[in-house]
TrEMBL record:
Protein family: Belongs to the MINDY deubiquitinase family. FAM188 subfamily.
Top-level taxonomy: Eukaryota, Metazoa, Chordata, Craniata, Vertebrata
Protein name: Ubiquitin carboxyl-terminal hydrolase MINDY
Start and end residues of each Deubiquitinating enzyme MINDY-3/4 conserved domain: 5-103
Keywords: Hydrolase, Protease, Thiol protease, Ubl conjugation pathway
Documented EC number(s): 3.4.19.12
InterPro entries assigned to the protein according to its UniProt record, in alphabetical order: MINDY-3/4_CD, MINY3/4
């Protein structure tokens, strides 16, 4: 039998399989599960356990500023460059969102 805590999580968590690798994308704000207004600017964390990841990646998601409006020097999805697969996965939930890696080099 599945625990009620697993059926209805208290914090937002997603198990990800991106490009054949697995990881956990999670947030620490429980309001993301119940209040759509909290989806304006929020933080998510990603951990894959892979050797190349030395610490949990801290991502800032902004759903009202679109990635094509960012300065090209800040956006890893500029023409001629591939967008990190994790960003593309996040944008399946929040289409067009701006994703800041907060100083971490985009990976995955």
């Amino acid at each position: 039998q599945v625990s009620p805590g697993l059926r209805t999580p208290r914090l937002p968590v997603w198990l990800c399989s991106v490009s054949g690798r697995h990881g956990v994308l999670f947030g620490t704000d429980s309001r993301l599960l119940s209040d759509w207004k909290c989806e304006r600017i929020f933080h998510l964390y990603f951990y894959s356990g892979q050797q190349e990841q030395t610490q949990t990646a801290h991502l800032t998601i902004d759903t009202h500023t679109h990635h094509w409006e960012e300065a090209q020097s800040e956006d890893p999805c500029t023409p001629g460059r591939r967008c990190p697969a994790l960003q593309m996965a996040i944008r399946t939930k929040w289409a067009g969102a701006t994703i800041s890696w907060n100083g971490t080099d985009p990976f995955f």
